Amino acid sequence: MEEKLEINPADYFSPTAAIPARGTLRDYYYPVVCGGIGFVGAMFMNFFARKPVFSGIQQHMIAGSLGVVTGFTLDRWMDRRGAHRDAVLYNYIVTHPEDFPPIRRKKYAEVLESWTPIR
């Protein structure tokens, strides 16, 4: 196995870099949280209107559904924002190579200081 001794900083933001797989929790976090906020928001509206908290269940369903749609929209927006940020950083690093020299990999022996226990 050949070891790479230098790392190019542009590789971190390259469009062709390996994209880590998203987990199930990451995929549905914002829709579930926003849907829950919508559902609980409908409960609070009923509570402050001095009604039973689960009365008008259609309000809960509508608020929860709107929350889920908002969550998916928020998730997509954050992905697009991150992709744009990465593209801007990649372009800057590629166009200004003098500011980003290749990083030399270090071994643990080079980083850690020698240590002798005193007993």
Tags for this entry?
mitochondrion inner membrane, mainly alpha, NADH dehydrogenase [ubiquinone] 1 subunit C2, respiratory chain, 3 helices, 119 residues, 3% strand, transmembrane helix, NDUC2
Textual characterization of the structure:
It is a single chain. The protein has 119 residues and is mostly helical. 57% of the residues lie in helices and 3% in strands. It has three helices and two strands, in the order βααβα. The chain has helices spanning 24-48, 57-95, 108-111, and strands spanning 6-7, 103-104. The protein has a two-stranded antiparallel sheet. Helix 1 (24-48) crosses helix 2 (57-95). The longest helix has 39 residues, at 57-95. It is elongated, with a radius of gyration of 25 Å. The two termini are 41 Å apart. The model has no long low-confidence stretch (mean pLDDT 89).
